[in-house]
Amino acid sequence: MCRRHLKSSTHNLNKAKYSVLLLLCWAMSVQADWGRLFYTPEQRQQLQTSAPVAAMPAAQQLRRFNGELIGPRGKVQWLDGKIASVPAGAKPGSVVDVRK
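The structure corresponding to this sequence follows.
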């Protein structure tokens, strides 16, 4: 290969890289504006004002067992960052059901 051909192919490769980069940046900005593009205005309003899923009350009974501290005054345990008693057998970091 001659130097001239090598130099022009490198230049074309750099142009292609920048073109792809520019295209990706443009696509990301366009995607952010789409939102709920394929819904009618009435459907968007309904989605925004609809009630939460019926399974949510059960999920509210789940708490994360953050940890425990065992000291001379006894054991202190935390659920969701607040001091609380934890069901027997729960391990720190696990999700426990407080209804039990």
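The first helix runs from residue 3 to 34.
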